Amino acid sequence: MPESEFTRKIRWKKLAWVPQNTKGSLDPRYSINDHFEELFQIHNVPDALHNTAELLDSVGLSSSIRWSIPDRLSGGEIQRSCIALALALSPSLLILDEPTSALDPSLKGQIIALLGTLKTQRDASYLFITHDIHQAISLCEEFIVLYAGHIMEQGSRESVFNNPIHPYTKKLLECVSFNIASAPPKYITGEPPRLGDLPPGCPFWPRCEKADAECKASLPLLEDKGSGHYAACFKS
């Protein structure tokens, strides 16, 4: 599809994106209102000022900030502005790339709560990319666990969290403390592989206690282990 057609038919209308570095994704010379106005002009949406005020209100921002440039806003305000911008044309899928990684801990919970509310209100689907398992559990219904660019495990939140199958998923969950009174988290020994120089076979085998000759020689395929719970592992 040509770029011009993709912009006109898909981008922002059906598929939108909240980047990891939200401040870096905004033009520092443009006010927040300018960003919205440009989007609405491209897609021939009338009454840009009213729509912008409504969108900013939906993410908990005063409409007065629309006249500010990004440098005059806090990290939380920029994050909320980018979420409002992504939702401006009511896309059916919103890609969230580590949307809270640049925020301090006090704001992370607020943004996740906001995303949960907006997801319900707008009947949208999220593709939520994160290293924060707590956030994923609170927001996501389906999990895909990746290691070195390969899917290790896939299934519902309940099945993956309560009954992990792949050795990597099990160790990943052991790294996270869900109970302050519980034992301290464990850590995965070894180092992640270089993506440009992956070992043959399963990419996790150098760090896996169950690995044998088959794991080192062949890449396991993703298989349904029951009830739509998939894993790519010879030993599970």
TrEMBL record:
One GO molecular-function entry: ATP binding
Superkingdom assignment: Bacteria
PROSITE patterns on file: ABC_TRANSPORTER_2
Keyword Cell membrane (UniProt): yes
Alphabetized Gene3D superfamilies for the sequence: P-loop containing nucleotide triphosphate hydrolases (3.40.50.300)
InterPro entries, A to Z: ABC_Ni/Peptide_Import, ABC_transporter-like_ATP-bd, Oligopep_ABC_C, P-loop_NTPase
UniProt KW keywords: ATP-binding, Cell membrane, Membrane, Nucleotide-binding, Transport
Domain named ABC transporter: residues: 1-173
UniProt-annotated location(s): Membrane
Keyword RNA-binding: no
SUPFAM superfamilies noted in UniProt: P-loop containing nucleoside triphosphate hydrolases
Family of this protein: Belongs to the ABC transporter superfamily.
Name of the protein: Oligopeptide/dipeptide ABC transporter ATP-binding protein
Organism: Candidatus Dehalogenimonas loeffleri
